[in-house]
Amino acid sequence: MHRHQADNLFHVPKMMCDRCVALLTSVLHAVDGTACVEADLKHRNVRVVSRHYESALLRTLRAAGFPAEPVPQPLG
Q1: How far is CA 64 from CA 5, 54, 71, 74, in A?
Q2: How high is the mean pLDDT in each 10-residue block of the chain (76 residues)?
Q3: Do 37 and 15 form a contact (C-beta atoms < 8 A)?
Q4: By the 8 A CB rule, do 37 and 59 touch?
Q5: Domains delineated in the chain
Q6: Which residues have C-beta within 8 Å of that of residue 65, sequence separation ≥ 6?
Q7: In this structure, are residues 18 and 39 in contact, taking their beta carbons and an 8 Å threshold?
Q8: Whole-prediction pTM
Q9: Is the four-CA dihedral 36, 15, 70, 29 of positive or negative sign?
């Protein structure tokens, strides 16, 4: 499902290294080639700007072996 681009922030506890970041980026780009993916290894968070719904992105991460949880963001 597609929509206007949205900013999603996920906590990915199993993301431990640059190789994990590369894999996550690759699988997310396979779903949405125009997605912007930024990783914060220190806090194990991934920001994804995508036209896909949050639930689809979470399923993609889970299928790649990286269960993730959405991080609530302030409205604004």
Answers
A1: 22, 16, 19, 28
A2: 80 96 97 96 97 95 96 77
A3: no
A4: no
A5: 2-70 (3.30.70.100)
A6: 14
A7: no
A8: 0.88
A9: positive
